[in-house]
Amino acid sequence: MVQRYRFEPLFLLEGARRVRDAVRMPVGYLGGVLSLEHADSLIAEGFAFVQLGRATIRDPDFVNNLASGKVSVSDCDHCNRCVAAMSADGVECVSP
Ligand SMILES: Cc1cc2nc3c(=O)[nH]c(=O)nc-3n(C[C@H](O)[C@H](O)[C@H](O)COP(=O)(O)O)c2cc1C
């Protein structure tokens, strides 16, 4: 049901930059953010904030764990099975 899509970190960056540079309002970045290094570089280049999807589905404490230094990179494997498994009860990581 869920196809495999090639994954690259920050896979929406080029398009997000074009949007950010074309509008006069704060723009956040979303797509393939996996580490504090990613988040810091996005803020440094002018995004107003950074959002994380699958990394926080994999580990709901991911941001706190980044901040404390417990982890440095998400171990989400981008299988996208959380998309197929989500229901009215919510969404969770179903990867081993
Ligand atoms: C479980 C799940 C549900 C999603 N549902 C939607 C949706 O309804 N509409 C949408 O535009 N994007 C949806 N997305 C895509 C996310 O908004 C986001 O673009 C994508 O996960 C990339 O960010 P990430 O690499 O941090 O996960 C969904 C993603 C996941 C993992």
What do these coordinates show?
- The structure is a single chain.
- The protein has 96 residues and is mostly helical.
- The protein has one domain.
- The chain contains five helices and two strands.
- It has a two-stranded parallel sheet.
- Strand 1 (28-30), helix 2 and strand 2 form a beta-alpha-beta unit.
- It is globular and about 40 Å long.
- Flavin mononucleotide binds at residues 30-33, 52-55, 57, 82-83, 86, 91.
Total domain units = 1
Strand content range: 5-15%
Shape: globular
Molecules bound to protein: flavin mononucleotide
Q: What count of helical segments does DSSP give?
A: 5
DSSP strand count: 2
SS-based class: mainly alpha
Poorly predicted regions:
none
Largest sheet: 2 strands, parallel
Chain-averaged pLDDT = 95
What are the SSEs and their pairings?
Layout: H1 13-22, E1 28-30, H2 36-44, E2 49-51, H3 54-58, H4 62-68, H5 81-85
Parallel strand pairs: 1-2
The structure holds flavin mononucleotide.
List keywords for this structure.
5 helices, mainly alpha, 96 residues, 6% strand, binds flavin mononucleotide
